[in-house]
Amino acid sequence: MKLFILLIIITLCTIASRAQGIKEIIITGTVIDKETKELLPKTTITILNLPDSIVIATFQTNNQGQFSITIGSDKALLLSFRYIGYRSLSKELKTQSENRKQNLHIIELQKTGLTLSVVEIKSPIIVKKDTIEFDASYFNTRDKAAVEELLRKLPGITVDRTGKIIAQGESVRKILIDGKPFFLDDPSLATKNLTADLISKVQVIDQKSDESQFTGIDDGKREKVINLTIKEEKRNKINGNISAALGTDNRFTSNANINRFGKGEQMSLIAKSNNTNNYPDNRTSESPPGLNTISNAGINYNKDIGNKISLNTSYIVDENKNTNTIQTFRQNFLEDGTWTYDQYAESRNRTFANRFQLEAKYKIDSIQELEFATNGFLNSINNRSTNISESRNQLDQLINNGHQNYHTSGRTSNIFSSFSYRRKLRKPGRALSTAVSFGITNGNNHSFNNSINTYHKQGGEITSDSLDQRNILKSKEKFLQYSFALTESLLKSSNLRFSYIFTRYDNSPSKETSDYNYLVKDYTNSNDSLSNNFNNLSSFHVFALKVRTQKPKYDYGLGITYLYNGMKNANYTRKTKLDKDYKILFPSASINFPFSGGRNLRFDYSVNIQQPTIQELQPVPDNANPLYILEGNPDLKPARTDKLNASYSLINPQTMRSLSFKITADLYSNRITYSNYFDSLGRQISRPQNVNGAWNINSGLDQSFQIKFMNAKVSSSTAVGYLRSVNLINGKTGYTNNLTAGQMLAFNGDAGKVMTLGLDLGIQFNNLTYSLQDESNRNFSYTVTLNTTFHLPYGISLDIYGDYRQLTGLSAGYNADFLLLNAGISKSLLKSKKALIKLSGYDLLDQNLSVVRSVGEGYIEDLRTSVLQRFFLLNFTYFF
């Protein structure tokens, strides 16, 4: 029934689009040589809008020089005919004629002797070596639409339900405004707060490292970023919006977004407060878990001081108050059967965070540059939870149940700074760079744990235990790093880079556990078995030698790295010490083929070394949940991942078709996984161990093409992955095999100025098998998302958003089948249309749910949390 309702809405939207859509016309004709009358096969025909001369389509004649083109437009068109060795010819075409078929008959091209007017053809896409540039004016968006809507229309770019941006198959983690960083490198702050009408160009850049950009010597490091260029007429002006809304059930929202972008100076202010889980910015069923009251504010400032100094700084403060009810059902797969854990919890959490960053670059002269960067945070938490739980064995017999109250509060602070110096030396291709970084992190947390657990033994015997404890956790981490790199030109097209990095970590965590003393009514009884004073001192020396060669048709890099890690662990409570060192030698390689026509093929091999965390090393039990106890392991070795990547991307500026394919393979050595032991009473003790035999393969294929007469993009994403992980359960070694596959189809387009339509269809498949028992689990997730706006007369707009989800194959009681339906009607005010009033409704059918499945090594877990349900908002917005 829910899917039927959504299909009716989609059908009505399609009918409305067709009724109000742009008229299609059929253009036919034949192209010949003017003198010889010979047919001209494969003549290029470019169709442009008038008067702006923007390309909307490109075609070719067949082998007989004939063409038949079907296109839709309500504007005058210009047809440009081009053939090698001939003068181009242009013909203007009126589309307002009632005749749907327009025969141009014979088009005659002349080799020489005829001077024709020149038509400037402005392509909406320009492909350079490391940059793809889009003309934002070509891709229509709604009035005052966010940048996120513009990105969804661009070939090769996808924005998923959570706002994550993928460009040419790679994640985008940084947005630049006119080449300047924007708000702590959080892309959503730009894509959700800035409006598309500010933007003239969107550039997708494979950005080189700061060192490469300054020296001009490519070190092979790349980061996918998006740069937004502000329109000239929008520069040096205040722009943005303020809004406020009140609703039913005491719901409210308020937003302020104020920007001023100049050539050498940028400033942005944002502020937001709401208790609607960020609605309307977030309209999907995947909103933050629980019921949230969110408040934040921030400032971003960029300034060029003369020609030598550039400054970037930002500061953000966040507060989140969360209440939640959580139902959890976990299945643990043991050799003799499946044990289950069922929990119901209520929580109230408050977090408060301050974040800042500052970057300053000083260009001493044409060959020297100095950079200073600092960032930090100050976070505090205050969390309370109550839960009840029970565990059952493979015979569905109750083996334990419990009740727990838990309260934790504390504060964490961090400061990090770095100085970098870069210099180009006299010899071309020779450069050096050096940097020093240091930081310190402090933590201080208090927790109170009050629980009662009952154990049901075979034969009917029942026992119980209880605890009432206070934990004081303190931590201090000091960080120091020095790096040096020298690059030397070998041949005309090659360079050799030597680098050395020294890193030192000094971690000193402590845990003081005390039991409640009922005589003095305070926590005075020290619990030495759960207390610990620990120190971990790690030093790293990394030497790397890399050769890089650049040819016109390809470039490649080869490298070798030597890592020495010395580790000293001291347990002052238990008076034990453990000193270890590791020596690792590993290679790296890459080759890149930047073909013409916007095509690129790349192969990479690299090695990643992951050090154990201080929590994984500290040998003290964590009994925050007495039925699930975690212990550290000071004998852990660093984990190694060998990574092999292959990728191919294509974007055609003429047809605006894009394709990207990527496959990655990870082979794990000494991977850190948890060894789990379950006793007869259902208590679980987990301890990290190093294991071998795990690997992971993932592949993804993204495609998109344009339907030009509808100003629409159709995109497809296919993903397949296979993960093999190692399980250690009750001394037995087993394997979990997880096959995942997903398919997404999306349509984003509009029918002139009448309607915009977005439609996403998705399916996700997961299949898990376990070697310790003949057990498999298969589940499906289906999604249908509709996002449409009708633009009615008198400045009225109607928004409809439908999000249908069906989850099957989960635990009993966790399968889901629901439709989240939102709608809103708005009216622009004032002659300038700078004001807007809107009435919107969230979850009109009152069906919203939140169900999540997670998969671990030897278990699956289904989780249901609280969600917002039906409410209405009346919103007023003013744009400036």
From TrEMBL:
Keywords assigned: Receptor
Outer membrane protein beta-barrel domain segment(s): 424-878
A Pfam family hit: CarbopepD_reg_2
Keyword Phosphoprotein: no
InterPro entries: CarboxyPept-like_regulatory, OMP_b-brl_3
Superkingdom assignment: Bacteria
Protein name: Outer membrane receptor proteins, mostly Fe transport
Organism: Olivibacter domesticus (Pseudosphingobacterium domesticum)
Taxonomic lineage: Bacteria, Pseudomonadati, Bacteroidota, Sphingobacteriia, Sphingobacteriales
